[in-house]
Amino acid sequence: MSEQLTPLPAKKSPYEALKYPQFVAYMFANSFITMALLIQEVLLGYEMYKVTHDPMALGLIGLAEALPYISLALFGGHLADLYNKKTILMLSLSVIILSSVILVWATHSTTQLPQHNLLPIIYGVIFLIGLAKGFYSPASSSLNPFLIPKEVFANATTWASSFWQAGAILGPGLAGFMYAYWGLTNSLWFVVALLCTVMLLISTITAPPIPEKVEEKVNIFQSLKEGIAFVFKTKIILYSISLDLFSVLFGGVIALLPIYAEDILKVGAEGLGVLRAAPSIGAILTMFMMVYFPPLKHAWRNLLLAVGGFGLATLIFAVSTNLWISVVALFFTGAFDSVSVIVRQTVLRYWTPDEMRGRVSAVNGIFVSSSNEIGAFESGLLAKLMGTVPSVLFGGTMTMIIVSIVWIRSKELFKMKVTD
Question: Directed axis angle between helix 357-369 and helix 115-143, to 10°?
């Protein structure tokens, strides 16, 4: 039996969410940590491919982060529902900062570590960051809805996603140029400075009270079971995050961009920065448009069309040997993905009870991490086995097939009407 889909309240100002200072601080913190970690990811990925020329080295970066995150995210969500969310954020962010400082030390010219020592340290640090994110991400995602009233969830989602995409644009876009002109170690110092700024912003946010209903829970396994069961019985949530999981798992190309930059398009570190920034530019421009024209009317149809467009743009990118055609294709992957983000995050915020936000955010985070980091491993593995271009063609084709299957199996969700 499908759940009742109650429409949101009538339309408000497109700037409604910006009236809440703590939400604004949260948005900047989210943007800066995204920027910092993506700069770090691009720097390390490009350095490791230059050293190894092995697609699997890129895939293992994703795997090293995803395994600890997936292992701990549900437990992290459980803790986020039980304890002070701000404290969890501060502690886990401290671990991320320490990990980034270790990377600065390991890559500094005076350290002079040989390759057989440097690579395990890099993978180990990424693993440690994945552990910290297993606690940070559920606490951060579950904190967000407490900073704004429920009636402006959709507007807040658009602004939060836009700020996130701003970080996702600046991070990869800057990383290639920073690598080329500053070098690896100095660029990693910039990452540390950004993470410290995130710490200061989070310190200004007041943690929400823990609901009394949650304080009574003592059995962790029962608590986790409740969170998973809620997701699986709420079809609109399950289908939306599953669609994201499988489409990005197969259709994502981000992990392979160093190969395209070096060997296919031959544009170097600067070109890699442009390629990495293109999807986020498409996403943020689309999200700013959606502040005024939300995609929440006929939301499920729009979600499926957007994921289908994502798959088509991926297929075009796969066969392109021209930098600007590739950039345009990546631009549209980001534009289409942004529609998916707005619909999915609005669904999660609106239909999740306050006392379960940490656990549901953790389940969603596992799906997202699986699609991104495990997807990066899948991309590296298939590129090694099939070749880079055939592996991206395979991924884009699988995305189109998945959208078709979900379209057929979720017809009752087309009745969903969500208006902002």
Answer: 140
